Amino acid sequence: MSQDLKTVVCIEDEAGVIELIQLILEQRGLRVVGAESGAEGLGVIRQLQPALVLLDLMLPEMDGWEVYRRMKADEALKNIPVIIVTAKTAGIDEALARHVAKVDAYIKKPFSLEELVQTVDSVLARVAA
């Protein structure tokens, strides 16, 4: 892994969405590693210690909330920023994400290219500051 590329882990059960996010973010100079389940994603996060995690809530094996809970309970992972990227549109999910779990950002699917790029750039800039 090149040290000059920031790594983003995208945990998403739809391979096509991972590919789209890879295409978009790799053009911005980021390395994107995908995982199609919560358990797999948690393993990738532990291995790579990424700069950022894009996390879907509806995942096989272990849902996104459980991945997030385990990350925040792990001393080595708790400071990695997380952007929730989900099709769950219930207001309670967004309220929980923003105010209770205090995720770094929340993107609803379908999202625009601009929204994804701006949100990722904003969170990475905030972390770097």
What does this molecule look like?
The chain has one domain (6-122): Response regulator (Rossmann fold), CATH 3.40.50.2300. Helix content is 46%, strand content 19%. The chain is built from 5 helices and 5 strands. The protein has helices at 15-26, 38-48, 64-73, 91-100, 113-128, and strands spanning 6-11, 30-35, 52-55, 82-86, 105-108. Helix 1 links the parallel strand 1 and strand 2. The two termini are 24 Å apart. The model has no long low-confidence stretch (mean pLDDT 89).
Task: Please estimate the helix content.
Answer: 40-55%
Distance between the termini: 24 Å
CATH superfamily: Response regulator
The biggest beta sheet is recorded as:
5 strands, parallel
Radius of gyration, rounded? 13 Å
Strand residues, percent: 15-25%
Note the run of SSEs as H and E. EHEHEHEHEH
What is the arithmetic mean of pLDDT?
A: 89
CATH architectural grouping: 3-Layer(aba) Sandwich
User: What count of helical segments does DSSP give?
Assistant: 5
Provide the domain count: 1
Give me the count of strands.
5
What is the CATH first-level class name? Alpha Beta
* Strand ordering within the main sheet: 2-1-3-4-5
Poorly predicted runs are: none
Outline: globular
Derived from helix and strand composition plus strand pairing, the structural class reads alpha/beta
What name does CATH use for the topology?
A: Rossmann fold
